[in-house]
Amino acid sequence: MESFSLILAIVVVTALAFDFTNGFHDTANAMATTISTGALKPKVAVAMSAALNLVGAFLSVEVANTISKGLVDETGIRPEVIFAALVGAILWNLLTWLVGLPSSSSHALMGGLIGAAIASAGVGAVHGDVLVTKVLLPAVAAPVVAGVAALVATRLSYRMSRGADGKAAEKGYRVGQIASAGLVSLAHGTNDAQKTMGIITLALVAGGALAPDSDPPVWVILSAGLAIALGTYLGGWRIIRTMGKGLTDLEPQQGFAAQTSAATVILASSHLGFSLSTTHSVSGAVMGAGLGRKGGVVRWSTATRMFVAWGLTLPAAALVAAFAEWVCGLGDWGTALIAVALVAASFAIWRISRREVVDHTNVTAPDEPEPAGVVTAAVAAVAPPPAGVPAADGLAAAFPAQKDIAPDAPARPAATSV
């Protein structure tokens, strides 16, 4: 094994920084529904998720091998290419975190890797079959499968608890939700922490510090697990608020069904080596659970913004990474310039986020109610007034502004019979 070069050390540190952003960006995947239903206090939830993320990092290396050995041709990759890929992924993670959108950290990382590899070695550096079968197809299938499973599980949960005492059933589902949230956190560690392991391993191979086709060393597994756990503990409160309250309003039965369905899909994909987006899986499960309850709704305006972010993740991260790789190719000063730009942009995004602070104290605060529009007022006007309220008063309540129109207008003369 050769000694670390400066660029290799920079790549490893940047990869762990990405892993950190992955942790706070994806905390919502495991704990948003648990926090929103009141099953766990916010700080307790993120601490539990952090610990289980660390444990999950040691359970498998299949996804890490998919990234380090399968997605791109490792023989033509330089450490600068990995650095450029991480720059694209980190910036996309921070931007989507700022606006509270649960986009995929996994796809940001892979998009960055694809863009940087193409900019460095051409399209042939990307293994298209691996991209399609282990990245793109799971990206489409995961939210659908998890959503359908959560919808069915939600309906079964309500049916099974139909004759049970309401408070006892709710308490039982809250306990079950804590267990399922732990399972999602464990699954997140087995899937997402491995992505950083794969990137670091790829950089070590590219820099000559590891032999080709090597598995991630133990120190890589440990450092990746610790970085994602620390990021998880700090909590991505903005995305937790979107996932827990912005998509739909969840009851304990729905939260339990959503998390159990998502965890099953994630763990199965990790076992098969699919680089699955936990964000896609959990978001699909939350929407399925929302539709599974009678009278439940999904806020499709929020869901649409989320879908747009999903579609932009791969190409946006790829473009930024390709530009970063082009600048890094100009020499050591180019790499230094990109490093400074990354730190400056990250700090600027953090400063902007301080204008509206979201943390554990207000993450479950209800959203401001939307003002009644014309349709709402019209429906109120034609609806029968409550018992004991004269019809005229009901109409005046629906259109309060009408009471003061033309106050001095003369009274209309009574009609006379002929």
TrEMBL record:
What InterPro entries is this protein classified in? Phos_transporter (IPR001204)
Q: What is its main location?
A: membrane
| Compartments (UniProt record) | Membrane
In Pfam terms, one family for this protein is PHO4
**TM regions (residue ranges):** 6-24, 44-61, 81-101, 108-126, 132-153, 218-240, 307-327, 333-350
The UniProt keywords, alphabetically, are: Membrane, Phosphate transport, Transmembrane, Transmembrane helix, Transport
Question: How does this chain sit within the bilayer?
Answer: Multi-pass membrane protein
Protein family per UniProt: Belongs to the inorganic phosphate transporter (PiT) (TC 2.A.20) family.
Query: Mind telling me what this protein is named?
Result: Phosphate transporter
